[in-house]
Amino acid sequence: MVKLMDKIEPLRTFEQIKILADANRMAILRFLMAGPATLTQLGISMHEHPAWVRHHVKILEATKLIEISEVRITAGVTEKFYKAKASALLLQELILPQSQKPVIIFSGSHDTGLDHIAEQLSRHVSILSLPVGSLDGLVNLRQGLCHVAGAHLLDVNGEYNAPFVRHLFPDRLVSMVTLAHRMQGLIVAPGNPKVIKSLADLARIDVVFVNRNPGSGTRLWLDKELRRINLPSDNIRGYQNIVQTHSLAAQSVLNGQADVVIGIQAAAWEAQLDFIELFEERYDLIIPAEQAQLVNPLLDHLQTGSFRRQLNSLTGYNTAHSGEQISLLENHA
Fold first, then answer.
1. What is the full DSSP assignment across 30-51?
2. Given the DSSP bridges, would you call strands 242-243 and 211-212 parallel, antiparallel or unpaired?
3. What confidence score (pLDDT) does residue 332 get?
4. CB neighbourhood size of 139 (10 A)
5. pLDDT, tens digit (0-9, with 9 covering 90-100), for 53-67
6. Which CA distances in Å does 101 have to 96, 104, 125?
7. Residue 105 in contact with residue 94, Cβ under 8 Å?
8. Looking at domain 103-326, which of 3.40.190.290, 1.20.1420.30, 3.40.640.10, 3.30.70.1060 is its CATH number?
9. What share of the chain has pLDDT > 90, as a percent?
10. pTM value?
């Protein structure tokens, strides 16, 4: 039987991180990651008395960073061998502001509407954003690096988000709530001076493009469409140049860095740029059950008339299904 590779475990509690701020305890832990050792062996390695070592070992044991792996009795003397509980550790901790208001960490696909929601709710809750794209946002949610993720991922069967959520959270209870449907398209300069009409125009020698980051829903859609129309990405000037948000994509057109980008209509509207419709998509929020209470103020806001009026005023949004929960059960029909 093939031996499984040694594990890397994430550090998720502040208590563990605080304990490892001590250089001596960190040195002991790293020694025990290499293999089991007794207090005597640790003392010899660190040029310290075993009693000194015992103090630090007990602290590491209490916080579940190390454990006893074996007890040997030799010539009437009992020796305990300690080992680290993981072969390596990944430091992973959200450091949040000390505030009277609840703090919600959002990660995933950037959305202009969410920016406005965060501003509208700022008196009661702080919503902090980590825009990394739909796919990486779900990965961050899985790893505990955010409280809610936003996604607009279309799978090969034409279903939004649910297949990706089911794949990444097979063992955890999560809910998926629609923020809105929104229009995506080509964002161009006012008056469309390059007369850009479709994706095929991205291959023109006189057209400069700026792309979105890998893993974003927009980038995944674009790459799929390029394959469908048999347009190699190497033929697109600027395909390798990327920005992280719809707003930055629109800004690159406004600043003359690009002739065209793909983004949501609201971003074009805010930058006073022209827009050519391509498709409408559904944008969902994904919330783990353990974060539901924290995220409730955001979800409650989706049910209000003021939310719908504000989002509709941005153009390119359809709020008819905003606030609806999407089933994550497999659809075999």
1. HHHHHS-B-HHHHHHHHTS-HH
2. parallel
3. 46
4. 18
5. 999 999 999 999 999
6. 11, 10, 5
7. yes
8. 3.40.190.290
9. 82
10. 0.77
Alpha-carbon span 192 to 274, nearest angstrom: 7
Query: Is 226 within 8 Å of 167 (Cβ atoms)?
Result: no
**Residue 207 C-beta-side C-alpha neighbours within 13 Å:** 25
Distance CA 276, CA 265 (A): 9
Closest among 70, 67, 103, 97 to 85, alpha carbons compared: 67
Amino acid at 295: V
264 DSSP β-pair partners? 184
CATH topology for 8-91 is Arc Repressor Mutant, subunit A (1.10.10)
Domain spans, the chain: 8-91, 103-326
Q: What is the largest CA-CA distance in the chain?
A: 91
Q: Quote the CA–CA distance of 299 and 296 in Å, as a whole number.
A: 5
